[in-house]
């Protein structure tokens, strides 16, 4: 997911572990990378 979204591994790890909250544009990139609508991702 990190490669596909263009987010560095450290940032991905921090988001996945709940140590960091992603910005809105980062959420969009993650949703696109995993092919999920943004609304489903943040639900």
TrEMBL record:
InterPro entries xrefs: Cro/C1-type_HTH (IPR001387), Lambda_DNA-bd_dom_sf (IPR010982)
HTH cro/C1-type domain span: 3-41
Superkingdom assignment: Bacteria
Pfam families associated with the record: HTH_3
Name by which UniProt lists this protein: HTH cro/C1-type domain-containing protein
UniProt source species: Streptomyces tunisiensis
């Amino acid at each position: 997911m990190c490669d596909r979204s263009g987010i560095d591994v450290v940032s991905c790890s921090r988001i996945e572990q709940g140590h960091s909250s992603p910005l809105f544009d980062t959420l969009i990139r993650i949703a696109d990378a995993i092919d999920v609508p943004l609304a489903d991702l943040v639900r």
